């Protein structure tokens, strides 16, 4: 059965997430670009407003895809306030707009309620990747001593 509620249609250029591996002080992400070149590419981890800080990480490219390891220590050092949400993008040569990283080409809708990943603690922050309501990939951070609401 083919999904008819896709957030992104198969022909629209975007970055498609494959495996996400949170462990050992990193979040590993494997994926590929759809409708765009990916050599070389940079994964951009951007904080949501008001701060809009970002980490730009060169991705390893090969075997039809890209891979990056997001260091949690660097991410924690860039966090402000008690909670912070970071969105993931892929910057590819020759494209003015970055490609939002998500997972849209499978048959699973509503990943936010289905997939969960373990949180890791780094520099006093609990950090965990998650899927948004639009099946995009983001990272939530909250101070280890903070008892606030879910920041997703």
Protein described:
Mean pLDDT is 88; it is low at 1-6 and 148-152. The relative contact order is 0.23. Strand 1 (14-23) and strand 2 (26-34) form a beta hairpin. It contains one helix and eleven strands, in the order E-E-E-E-E-E-H-E-E-E-E-E. Strands 1, 2, 3, 4, 5, 6, 7, 8, 9, 10 and 11 form an eleven-stranded mixed sheet that branches. The longest helix has 7 residues, at 72-78. With 152 residues, it is mainly beta.
Summary?
The chain has one helix at 72-78, and strands spanning 14-23, 26-34, 42-47, 54-58, 60-62, 65-71, 83-91, 99-102, 120-122, 125-131, 137-143. It is mostly beta strands and 152 residues long.
Defining traits:
eleven-stranded mixed β-sheet, mainly beta, 152 residues, 5% helix, 11 strands, single chain
For the sheet with most strands, the description reads: 11 strands, mixed
Number of helices: 1
Strand content range: over 45%
Global outline: globular
Compute the gyration radius: what is it? 15 Å
Topology of helices and strands:
Blueprint lengths: L13 E10 L2 E9 L7 E6 L6 E5 L1 E3 L2 E7 H7 L4 E9 L7 E4 L17 E3 L2 E7 L5 E7 L9
Parallel strand pairs: 1-8
Antiparallel strand pairs: 1-2, 2-6, 3-4, 3-7, 5-6, 7-8, 7-11, 9-10, 10-11
